[in-house]
Amino acid sequence: MDITLTINGERRTLPLEDPRVTLLDALRQHLDLPGTKKGCDHGQCGACTVMLNGRRINACLTLAVMHQGDEITTIEGLGTPEALSPLQAAFIRHDGFQCGYCTPGQIVSATAMLAEFREGWPSNVSNDLSAPRLDDEEIRERMSGNLCRCSCYPNIVDAIRETAESVA
Amino acid sequence: MSEPITFKRHLRMNTPEKADFFDQTAQGVLSQPLDRPEGKLKVTGTASYADDVHPPETAYGWFVRAPIAKGWVTGLNTAELRAMPGVLAVIRDDRMIMHPAQGQQGKSPPQGPSEVFYAGQPVALVVAETFEQARDAAQAARPELIDRSDKAALKLPLDDYETPKSKQAAQGDLDKAMTEAAFAVDQVYETPSMSHSAMEPHAAVAWWDDGKLTVRGSYQMLKTNVAELADALGISARKVRILAPYVGGGFGGKLGISHEAVGAAIAAQRLGRPVAIALHRRNVYEATHRRSESRQRIRLAAGADGRLAGIGHEAWVSSMFGDSFSEPVTQASPFTYAGENRVIGHHVARLNLTAPGSMRAPGEAIGVPIVELAMDELAQAAGLDPVELRLRNIPDEDPSTGKPFSSNRLEDCLRQGAERFGWADRPEPGARREGEWLIGMGMASAVRVNTLEPSEAAIILLPDGTARVETDMTDIGTGSYAILTQIAAEALGLPVERVTTVLGDSDLPPSSGSGGSFGAASSGSSVLLAAQALRAQLAERMGCDADEMTLKDGQAIAGNRTRALPDLLAGDTLRGEGAIDPGATSQTVRQATWGAQFAEVAVSTVTGEVQLRRLAATFACGRILNPKTARSQCIGGMIFGIGSALTEHVAHDPRDGHFVNRDLAEYHVPANLDVPKIDIAFLPDRDAHANPMQAKGIGELACCGTAGAIVNAIANATGKRFREFPVTLDKVLAALG
């Protein structure tokens, strides 16, 4: 069967012979978008974070066949080496990565997280559910679904805070 | 491009490098916080890791695991699997390895698909047209077994541990010192099995071309990885090429080749097409390496003034059958603190568990924090401030060998670190409370041995005055791309934009690889030597001595003459080759890196939760090549320490030893919210005995001690001692009563 979906603003047709193909493997193996990484294939590490219709999800936990007509944004859709997104540039400046393997997921996740925040979503650590403030603890809580074994967490928080402040 | 003209420089590190080369250079890019040159690729998803590129016609492999701790696999439902959709091969080959190679092993680990030493051991490989088909078929595999799990060694009585003669040491009479001590500590501590848990699972994509094998792999040490893979396959190392331009974390877990490299190579050979194997996360946990659990007995004998008369550090660890590696827990204990009476003990159990191997700072990562727990207990017993106790016990020379230290900055680290942290504000044990939270501070010394390994590199200086650094060194997140670029740029007087660094290809000059915190110092020294070979040639072309010439911004300056490099090169391409070897300075002095770590914690009296409020550390580890990447290495190392202190623990099933929590949901590496502000300070430092750059290892030192500081802070907060890592909620609640 053919699945048609919009990836990074471009309509793509995915010939799918096997319904077991996850969205993650479809991106990596069938659509030539290996920027999204596979760390656990179990929704535990966040390395495969992509945006589905604007919301961040783990691409390993969903099947490609479920996404007819959906809009997917991957790391490749946020910026390129020649034209970095503000978050991508901030991650470089603050050294928000070391090995770089979790980094695409961190950046996609942070991009969506900042949008969630701007829409007023509270988190588990928000003191005021109606008007959360994006302090470091909020960033840390909201980014805890993305593991980084090199453990660049403090630098990741710095990069996100700086971007949030400059965009706000 | 013209044929390069080659110049070579080799250095065996027999004497200290008194003249500091980088004090004479002018470019000013070394020791600057350069952004990682490969950063743009990593943040855009365009850096290609092992499993990110599949050649056309790639088939996919998935391993079948042994469901028993001990025994034999005598057969498999191969015909049934072979008939499943897309299945191309079901492979049980005598060349398959039983467990990964140890770091720098350079030859194959034990091989064969039949005898089983641990639950989860790969015993067959299913290859199919697609990933999904391979996975499905492998999960339908039914190995025929002779199950001897009832005879498996999962835990041994202490009497049954091996005591290798070469790993014991004693001086003086510790028993007597303990009897005569004004204050003594004699305690047993335990640390659990742990796992590297790099974010990128081990992966290999292999293909053969005219009898030559190429593997895209996720490995740390390509020189020995090639030798290991060639030996496993029974072919010449000249026929093997490994590509690892980006490695998604290693931490020692990718030092040696693993199942996927050998499996993919065998399958690709059999099928005549490329084969990709990315280990599933549970294979990574079960079938690659882990850090051994340890039992450690510490004895400290101190006089009334807190000065140590004796130290005993004995460790009981486990190892794979037949393996010479065992976690060198006591590695820093012969020289960290003074004391004329000393016992070092090392005992090894051969267990039917996932094979132990090197994990970030093997030895000191778990040995140092435990010594530091005992020192904290001694400080309390002696009524001394913990920092003061350590200051009183810094030896003037290596107390076990009488050799001088090349550099010992422990006192500076302790004093400056304490000041920076605000250690003077430390409460009395159990005395500070904020609502349900008990607040405490703890500290620990950090120490890690420093070494140099043989390493080679080349720099190609092109006619346009740009340079390309080439070595088979890897960047596993450590910053190799950044620092090697900076070293070459500084030594050749080039802006960093004119230097490209190419790594991770075994066809390039063989380096030390990434491991043991020697990578930056070893590979960096070889790049420096290559640059010096080029400088000598450039000086000759300038008609002056190399030390009369300044290289800056792509120009050579001597006296009142300035010439641009393209002019000086006159269309020639120059190739500088550098090689460093360790020499006498590895033997004549005790080399180590030093630090002091501090932690503040809040412990909930209701839930037993430990929250870290802040961590701080001061380190002395020679010249800092890039303070930005160095700081990240230290942060990462310290957060490894958080995991060790509070959350990380491999649960081995007591029935068959299998790795129960074999995924990232159940093996708890620290997450973002677990991590507080971390303050890192580097002391200005040089070590002329270390290498010509006077730089030393960093990434491992940072995780030696952190767990000690945290657990000592918990003791300070609660007034209770915790002698078993990790200090989880259940243990805290039980202690608080």
What are the key terms here?
heterodimer, A: 168 residues, alpha+beta, Ubiquitin-like (UB roll), DNA polymerase, domain 1, 2 domains, 5-stranded mixed β-sheet, 6 helices, globular, B: 737 residues, Aldehyde Oxidoreductase, domain 4, 3 domains, 7-stranded mixed β-sheet, AldOxase/xan_DH_Mopterin-bd_sf (chain B), iron ion binding (chain B)
CATH superfamily of the largest domain in chain B: Aldehyde oxidase/xanthine dehydrogenase, molybdopterin binding domain
Apparent shape of chain B: globular
Radius of gyration of chain B: 27 Å
Q: What would you give as the CATH superfamily of the largest domain in chain A?
A: [2Fe-2S]-binding domain
Structural class of chain A: alpha+beta
Largest sheet of chain A: 5 strands, mixed
Give the terminus-to-terminus CA distance of chain B.
76 Å
Residue windows where pLDDT falls under 50 for at least 5 positions of chain A: none
Largest interface by Cβ-Cβ < 8 Å: A-B, 62 and 64 residues
Helix/strand class of chain B: alpha+beta
**CATH architectural type of the largest domain in chain B:** 2-Layer Sandwich
Give the strand line-up of the largest sheet of chain A: 2-1-5-3-4
Mean pLDDT of chain B: 97
CATH topology of the largest domain in chain B: Aldehyde Oxidoreductase, domain 4
Query: Approximately how much beta-strand content do the residues of chain B carry?
Result: 25-35%
Any idea how many domains of chain B? 3
* Average pLDDT taken over every residue of chain A: 96
Can you tell me the CATH class of the largest domain in chain B?
Answer: Alpha Beta
